[in-house]
Amino acid sequence: MANSASGDSVVDRVVRVIEAFPEGVTSLQLSELADRSGLPLSSAHRLVRQLSEHGLLDLGAGGTVRLGLRLWELVNRNSPTLALRQAAMPFMEDIQQVLNQNVNLAVLDGWEALFVERLSRRGSVANRARIAGRMPVHISSAGLALMAYQSRELQAEYLEQFVDPSGKLTAGVVRHLLAEAAQQGYAQLAGVVDPDTWGIAVPVMNAKRRTVAALGVVVPLAEMRLQALVPALQTAARGIGRQLGD
Asked: How does pLDDT run across 141-154, given as a tens digit for each residue?
């Protein structure tokens, strides 16, 4: 790919354009898009026009740029999490029917939990997890459940670089949380993100006993019932694992 004067490739610039859209925002003015992507207006306009020809972006009247339906189609059709979401959905729906609270599904991506599915109902407690949203491992029960079942080498690498921006947690505390989750078979965090909620998550393992996801719920502190929640989640996680196979 040809490089720009700044040394970045065409692919780099395309990614910067698409990443410029903030979470929850589907349209931007071309000038704002150029500013957010750090590109000259002329370069941004040229890339947007080319991407719109493929349906990945939509360039409207007045310089409004929107994410294209073609982008959504390609991402969802070929997503590596598609089989996981399809296998998990019936079990997630069953749990939601019983609890009437938030149910989420996450995978590990770097040092973050990436949420690939979420079910919620009106009246559910607050839940910061969003589909395609991320949370650091140490502040989400799903993240802890995922990291607790990774290899010792990966955990060591994670703990070595760990820094809590709030300054409240040390690597030693997180190491204890991971060991506790591995021993108990589930991870729990109370009031970390929202003071009135409790998150519980369990690992989802495939036929090779490799942890591929975490299944979790967020419930009110006042309705916390570990003795009922954990077995239900673990049963669902085993069912998802059987559907996934290898």
From this structure: 999 999 999 999 99
Residue 87 makes CB contacts below 8 A (sequence gap 6+) with 240, 243, 244
**Judgement on whether residues 95 and 150 belong to the same structural domain of the protein:** yes
**3 state DSSP class of 156:** helix
* CA 129 from centroid of its chain's CA atoms: 7
pTM for the full predicted model = 0.79
Q: 58 and 168: one domain?
A: no
Asked if residue 202 has pLDDT above 50, the reply is yes
Which residue, 87, 110, 125, is CA-closest to 215? 87
Question: For position 64, which CATH number holds?
Answer: 1.10.10.10
Between the CA of residue 183 and those of 67, 99, 144, 145, 165, what are the distances in Å? 44, 25, 12, 11, 27
Domain final residue pick, 48, 75, 102: 75
**Domains in the chain: how many in total?**
2
Is 3 among the domain residues?
no
Pairing mode, if any, of strands 57-59 and 64-67? antiparallel
Residue recorded with tokens 């690597």: 171
Does pLDDT of 194 surpass 90?
no
Residue with tokens 């369990």: 202
